[in-house]
Design a protein that fits this description.
162 residues, Glutaredoxin, four-stranded mixed beta sheet, two-stranded antiparallel sheet, 4 helices, globular
Length: 162
Amino acid sequence: MGIYDIPLHTLAGEPGSLGDFAGRTLLVVNVASKCGLTPQYTGLERLHERYADRGFSVVGFPCNQFGGQEPGTAEEIQEFCSTTYGVTFPMFAKIEVNGPGRHPIYTELTSVPDADGEAGDIQWNFEKFLVAPDGTVVGRFRPGVTPEDETLVAAIEKHLPG
């Protein structure tokens, strides 16, 4: 099963999958509303707006596994993201990214190593995975890499469709 085939639910509870974005370059991020890294939402939204017309999208997955920093309901998360950070990129339902309850999408993602060759568990909120238009995971960026870091931006630009 490829990354596009794994069933998901949107933050609004509708069925979906990353296959809905096939042909686009994706930046998949586990997000949280009450984290020291939460201001990364600003940079993620800027990336989304900057490259959306070139076949790119940020995709957010709320997760409450790191210090209980995403305790809200789907409605609370949506409200927070849109009013506080102006988030327009797609958000999926809250999931687990590590441990026995790890969602299958993150089983696929965490098998990909970062720049230091380390695969495995998500370290914290705002870990980023770059997915090429064909569904191949082509990059992993740890939480400390900001959305507008030149290495991340260069990787996005390299993998834009067309």
